[in-house]
Write the structure tokens for this entry.
Amino acid sequence: MTASKLQDSDVMEFETDRYFAKYRRTKSRDVGEIVIVSKSAGRHRATHNSYNVIDSDGRVLETRQIDFVAAKMIFGQFQSYGETEAFNVPIERFQSFNSVSNKVPKRAKEIRPESIIHKTTTKEKSYTATGDKLDYHWPVFKKYKDTGFGSIIRATLTNHQVCSSACQYCSTIARNKKDSISLAEAQKFVQTLYFDQAEFNKNNFAKYNDQYRELTGTDIRLRGLILSGGGQPNLWPYFSDFVDWLSDFDIDLGLITNGFPKHVPEETYSKFDWVRISITPDDASPFYPSGRFDKQYIPTTLINAPSVTVGYSYVHGPWTKQSVFDRISQAIDDNGFDYARLLTDCNLTRNSQLLAHENLANILKEKGLVDDKGEPTGKLFHQLKYHGTETEADSLWSDGQCFLQTYNVFWDTTGHEENGYSYCYPCDSVTVLAEEQTDESINVSERRFVPSKWGTYKNTEVENLFKGRVRPFFDPREICSSCLFMKNNARVKSLVDKEIDSAALSSENREQIVHINFP
């Protein structure tokens, strides 16, 4: 069938081993869209109505609305490129589509991160995990070097897997809505990392514990806790009770959410050190009035809040309308927020991700939101976050050990409904690892947590993360060579080999990085 014979009124379906995909023309808005539904128990979905036309170098020429012709081209790329990269359509494929060739064009030439307009700022170091904050916890890495034991100073909990949005770039689209934990389980997890870990270090590693106490004023234990996952952790039934309970601990609290259910008391949010609001594409969230993120309900305790750092996070992609950057800037001013982090879809492979970063950087420069060197001119900053390479992986992990395990834990609830327990992971980004293969195909991201692949201990065994020597549960060189946290791993490796001058980290001398308990 040639392109001229394809009609927008047509419906087309496609299926992979993990997804159902359907093109349709909506009656309400009279636009074409592709709906991707996970085959997992949760049946989470993502709705796409735009795609990129890219040149031979992989750079975005234009963003177009999806019609039946485009859907056929996109579906033709699913097997080779996966459900994320498939929405980048090469111009030669676009121009020659009448030939109905399903041959997938060769991907773009490699782009180097240094070629992208970007300046790493104090805000990026403070409000994201770049590895720079690890220096302020150096005794735990000295302890690891001398003894082989880790120290879990940062943790993230998902608590449940419920979200009302349908974001195109969702990192856990294959999750199960029924995977949730009880309040008692969440409390036990925190108590173990807080009380039990502190006692263990005082009794068994007094030397390093004393050094850490001199540096930070506290024992080696959990310092920072983030409630995240599923898009809306505040939809978890015990959210307010858990936060109230946590507020009695000397733990810095962070929250990542894309919305605020009105049944949660507004005072609950004042107990966080920071709150990051994820801005979904306008048509992905049912709770955006008139499809506008800047019209959503914001608790009054977060508006012009001096004691809580509040910021936005926005993922740039084919769904982006350039007016969104102006709306983000205005919303920051209207609400008295502190920042907005801008980044790209982490489900993309390294090169496509870097090209998306280049596109984002150029847009920000054209709009005057950054200068010629990438220095932000306002409160919006660009986080240049991208995948690593096999060469970096082989050099960094010569012993096959992920270094994030030495200080960080991410507890995801996947499998909890079926098993009564779930697993801990070294980080939250294993779900978005994607790699280009030598045959021009792509090893696509899992978009779910797979315990047999990346899991460490069960949540009921979390004490083993600090009571036993750090050991590899998997070889990151084999399954994490596209790691998004290469810099963090490299920073740990360097800290293991040197001792930081504590005086240089004093508030008078150090760069004014904040939220150091979320390294």
Residues 116 and 358 are 5 Å apart (CA to CA). The chain has 15 helices and 18 strands.
